[in-house]
C-alpha cells in the first residue's frame, strides 16, 4: 500500500523545530489482553521491545519529553520511518494522519487552560498490529486516567485491540478539549459581567486574549475532523469494523467541540460591542452630568460677575449681599427642579 498523507504542511527546517520534546523522559509500558494486565514504568527499552511480537496489546507511552537517541531506538526497533520521527519531534507540526503498510501515524494537539493561558501540547500516535506508541510533549501525563481504566478493567478496554485503544486515547484528547472550552466559557461569562458593570481597558485586553485562544483551539481541533473521517473510510487492515462506530461517535464529538468554539467566538466578538456600548453609555452619563453642572453655574457666574463689578446694592441697601445669595440659590433650585422634572438627573 502506498504512503498516503492527509493535511500536508511544509515543515520548517533548522534545529529550532526539532527540540520540542526535550526533558526528563518517562516511559510507561502497559501490556494487556483478555486475561491479564501488566503496567509499570520502565527504564530499559528492551522490556518493551520483547513484547513487540506477542499476541497481547502493548502500549508504550513516552511522556515528559524525549531525545533523538531514545526516539531513534524506538523507531529502529518498531520500523518507524525517519520522516515520522521528525514529525514526532517537530512540535510545530499541525494535526495530520499518515498511512503506512504496517502502521498508522497520527499527530494531535492536547489542550490545557489555567484560566488565563492556553497551553497546546504535541501528541503523536503510532498504531500497529499489536502495539501502540504514544509520545507526549511536556511533563503532563494526559493518558494516565486511560491507563488506570485499563488496569482496573473498566469498560471495553479489557478487550485487546490497538485500534480501539487508539480511539480511547483520541477520545481522551477530545474530552479534554471540552473541559478547556467549559473553562473558557466561564472566562467569557466573567467578561460579560465586567462589560456591563465595569468596562475598562483591561477588559479589552482580556477579550482579545480569549478570542486569540479560541482561534488557537479551533486550529488545533478542526483538522481532527479530517483525520477521523479518513481513518474511518480508509478501510485500513489495522482498523477493525467493530471500531468504526466508535470513530463515527468521536467524529460527532469533534463536530460538537468545533460548534462550541464557534459559539464562544461569536459571544467573545459580541463582548467587544457590549464593551463599546457600555463605555459609550458611561461617557454619555458623565457628559450629561458635566453639562448640567455647567448649565447650572452659567447664570450664577453671570450674577456673581455683575456683583463683583459694582457694590452699589450693598452700599445703598444693607441686605444687598443677602439678596444676591438668595437670588443665586433660588435660580439654582429652580433649575434643579426643572432638570428633575425632565428626568435629566
Shape: rod-shaped
Q: How many β-strand runs?
A: 8
Q: What would you give as the CATH superfamily of the largest domain?
A: CorA soluble domain-like
Biggest sheet, strands in spatial order?
A: 1-5-6-7-8-4-2-3
The CATH architecture of the largest domain: 2-Layer Sandwich
Give the uncertain stretches in residue-range form: 1-23
What is the CATH T-level topology of the largest domain? Beta Polymerase, domain 2
Order of helices and strands: EEEHEHHEEEEHHHHHH
In the CATH scheme, the class of the largest domain would be Alpha Beta
Describe the structure using short key phrases.
345 residues, alpha+beta, Beta Polymerase, domain 2, 2 domains, 8-stranded mixed β-sheet, 56% helix, disordered N terminus
Description of the structure:
The chain is an alpha+beta fold and 345 residues long. The protein folds into 2 domains: 4-277, CorA soluble domain-like (Beta Polymerase, domain 2); 281-341. It is 56% helix and 16% strand. The protein has 9 helices and 8 strands. It has helices at 46-49, 68-78, 82-89, 144-151, 162-197, 201-233, 244-309, 312-316, 320-341, and strands spanning 4-6, 26-33, 36-42, 57-63, 96-99, 104-113, 118-127, 131-136. It has an 8-stranded mixed sheet, sandwiched between helices. A hairpin with a 4-residue loop joins β6 (104-113) and β7 (118-127). The longest helix has 66 residues, at 244-309. The termini are far apart.
Amino acid at each position: 500500500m502506498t504512503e498516503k498523507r492527509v493535511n500536508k504542511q511544509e515543515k520548517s527546517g533548522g534545529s529550532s523545530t526539532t527540540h520540542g520534546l526535550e526533558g526528563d523522559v518517562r516511559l510507561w509500558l502497559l501490556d494487556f489482553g483478555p486475561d491479564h494486565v501488566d503496567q509499570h514504568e520502565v527504564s530499559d527499552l528492551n522490556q518493551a521491545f520483547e513484547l513487540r511480537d506477542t499476541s497481547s496489546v502493548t502500549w508504550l507511552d513516552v511522556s515528559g519529553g524525549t531525545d533523538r537517541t531514545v526516539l531513534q531506538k524506538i523507531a529502529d526497533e518498531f520500523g518507524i520511518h525517519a520522516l515520522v520521527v521528525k514529525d514526532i519531534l517537530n512540535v510545530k507540526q499541525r494535526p495530520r494522519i499518515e498511512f503506512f503498510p504496517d502502521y498508522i501515524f497520527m499527530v494531535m494537539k492536547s489542550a490545557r487552560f489555567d484560566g488565563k493561558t492556553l497551553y497546546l501540547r504535541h501528541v503523536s500516535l503510532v498504531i500497529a498490529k499489536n502495539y501502540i506508541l504514544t509520545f507526549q510533549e511536556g511533563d503532563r501525563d494526559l493518558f494516565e486516567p486511560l491507563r488506570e481504566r485499563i488496569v482496573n478493567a473498566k469498560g471495553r478496554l479489557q478487550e485487546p485491540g490497538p485500534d480501539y485503544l487508539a480511539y480511547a486515547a483520541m477520545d481522551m484528547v477530545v474530552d479534554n478539549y471540552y473541559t478547556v472550552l467549559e473553562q473558557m466559557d466561564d472566562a467569557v461569562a466573567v467578561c460579560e459581567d465586567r462589560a456591563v458593570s465595569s468596562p475598562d481597558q483591561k477588559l479589552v485586553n482580556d477579550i482579545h486574549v480569549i478570542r486569540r485562544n479560541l482561534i488557537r483551539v479551533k486550529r488545533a481541533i478542526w483538522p481532527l475532523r479530517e483525520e477521523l473521517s479518513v481513518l474511518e473510510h480508509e478501510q485500513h487492515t489495522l482498523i477493525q469494523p467493530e471500531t468504526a462506530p466508535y470513530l463515527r461517535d468521536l467524529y460527532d464529538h469533534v463536530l460538537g467541540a468545533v460548534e462550541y468554539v464557534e459559539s464562544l467566538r461569536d459571544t467573545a466578538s459580541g463582548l467587544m460591542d457590549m464593551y463599546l456600548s457600555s463605555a459609550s453609555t458611561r461617557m454619555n452619563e458623565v457628559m450629561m452630568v458635566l453639562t448640567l453642572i455647567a448649565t447650572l453655574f452659567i447664570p450664577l457666574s453671570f450674577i456673581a460677575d455683575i456683583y463683583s463689578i459694582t457694590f452699589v446694592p450693598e452700599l445703598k441697601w444693607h441686605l444687598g449681599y443677602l439678596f444676591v445669595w438668595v437670588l443665586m440659590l433660588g435660580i439654582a433650585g429652580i433649575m434643579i427642579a426643572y432638570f428633575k422634572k425632565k428626568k435629566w438627573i
